[in-house]
């Protein structure tokens, strides 16, 4: 089955970014496809590669990058939300790309299920 | 728009519902939900909007966020009709709890009771909740 | 002490909890908290006691942003602007935000 | 349809609203939403009907994180892991998050 | 620490209360509140912690966030005593609503009723709410 | 009177960052001192100078920088919260500095009032 995921909150502040990641990883482990994760609103902060969490904490941006690398999942950051918050190409993590909101609606049409995580 | 080309190839038409449950201005959720609704118009899907709980506050007339330096996005609801998005469902119980009537809203809506709202939700292919 | 509530009264329990601990202190409604002050809304009844004693305020710019006219407010709720917010904190001591 | 609630039932009205619209559908409690499933808590009574019909689930890793043992859960609530979450969405159709 | 030098010059001792009203893990508020409490120990102020509403969940025993990759910060509450922070007030009504008793908590606390909690809040010079 | 302000949420997502700014501006306009604004948790995103909001929207980072420039208000970004979220010196707005949580407790002691904005 083909899943798409919408993430509306940033890393560390809310559990939403963690829940979205764990859901994606579990879907992939079951052999499903996760064709796209769309980062919207504060969700765009997930893509900031400058993140340096403490040693004993998870690295949220790296986790997403590794997931994209391993499974080809398309990590799309909403351009308008990102510009407003200062998430630019120069600080974007590996595997993320910046694009328009159309990418969210498109994947909502194409995927079998859209799963939303937010606050 | 390349997005459009893609989905048109697939030929899919899905029932999309945007569920609005948050008040405007306190968070950006309401404003950003409307942005997705506007974009969705370009994809010729079967789009509807649901307003329940504090989401009904989004449709209050007379909102003016100028003093806060924030956007007045409520008038944009009036533009939805131009995009052929005309299924706006508002839950009667949510209005009543907040002392609002449909006449006080910024656009014409269909007021439905909770049971009907639940049925409408259950009919969708995709639900985006904000 | 000046208490502030910034959430809608029909979405979270923050206003309820604040009122349960308000004792004789003052309450300023800000952000989505201002919906509590709408007379026609269900939540305004909860404010009746402290409002009658002149201890409930609502932030004007937040009311305007949400399309709530002053004539729609529950009895006894006083509207203040940001300058009034500053004065309330200055005069009535520590600020406690019910986040 | 699979509904999820991610907020504590004593902090917000999201669980209440979800249950008012649940009809015959399924509910998965995640994040702070799992507190609703604690049998000894006030909110668990609200789940009784759908739980008795096997339509209420709670996410295991979120229960563990919060120190809630499976023996503390209300009758009928089924614990699932993330794989189970994926299966619920796959089998029961569109996801609706009560954010 | 230069911070300490500054306030010691001023000679001030204030009553600081950290008000915890949110559940742990769903948001970072609870964890970050505890970080401020630990730092405050270095400033020799009159520090107390209040737990009410969902904040009482922070003190549940047996929390284990490993499977989520998140921090288990609850054991840190046990370290507060080493920093001479021993005024932990927990509201009885909040415990009862959640089916919790003081014996189930990770550290010894003073259980107070709502009226006493309100009085304690009103005695503070600085309230930090999380 | 001497005020200090604590900001726990980022720009644009929550009104908290706006409320904090308007409060600070109003206090200064009345002749009060706003000695420090402390940005904690997601509040650290206020300091990201890469923010590019749309033309008709407010620029939250610039607004803080101008306030600091005009009134000497100390804008302190919590180092641990900022590292974790990728708010580094290289993207820090004018007038902001990164420092420890001790700066929050310190100003809580020194100021006459600490006012908190969050979610």
Walk me through what this model shows.
The complex is a heterohexamer, with two copies of chain A (119 residues), two copies of chain B (130 residues) and two copies of chain C (99 residues). Chain A is of the alpha/beta class. Chain A has a single domain, classed as DsrEFH-like (Hypothetical Protein Ychn, Chain: A, 3-Layer(aba) Sandwich), CATH 3.40.1260. Chain A has helices at 16-29, 60-71, 79-85, 102-110; strands at 2-7, 33-39, 74-78, 96-99, 113-117. In chain A, strand 2, helix 2 and strand 3 form a beta-alpha-beta unit. In chain A, helix 1 runs parallel beside helix 2. The longest helix of chain A has 14 residues, at 16-29. Chain A is globular. Chain A starts with a strand and ends with a strand. Chain B has one domain: Hypothetical Protein Ychn, Chain: A. A five-stranded parallel β-sheet of chain C has the order 4-3-2-1-5. The longest helix of chain C has 11 residues, at 82-92. Chains in contact: A-B, A-D, A-E, A-F, B-C, B-D, B-F, C-D, C-E, C-F, D-E, E-F. At the A-F interface, helix 3 of A face helix 3 of F.
| Biggest sheet details of chain C | 5 strands, parallel
How many strand elements of chain C?
A: 5
General form of chain C:
globular
Count of β-strands of chain B? 5
Helix content of chain B: 25-40%
For this entry, what is the oligomeric state of its chains?
Answer: heterohexamer
CA-to-CA gap between the ends of chain B? 26 Å
Per CATH, the class of chain B reads: Alpha Beta
SSE string of chain B, helices as H and strands as E: HEHEEHEHE
Unreliable runs of chain C, pLDDT <50, ≥5 residues? none
Name of the level-1 CATH class of chain C: Alpha Beta
What's the rounded overall pLDDT mean of chain C? 98
Taken together, the total number of domains of chain C comes to: 1
Main beta-sheet strand count, sense and barrel state of chain B = 5 strands, parallel
Portion in helices of chain C: 25-40%
Protein name (chains C, D): Sulfurtransferase complex subunit TusB
InterPro entries (chains C, D): DsrEFH-like, Sulphur_relay_TusB/DsrH
Pfam family, one (chains C, D): DsrH
Subcellular location (chains A, F): Cytoplasm
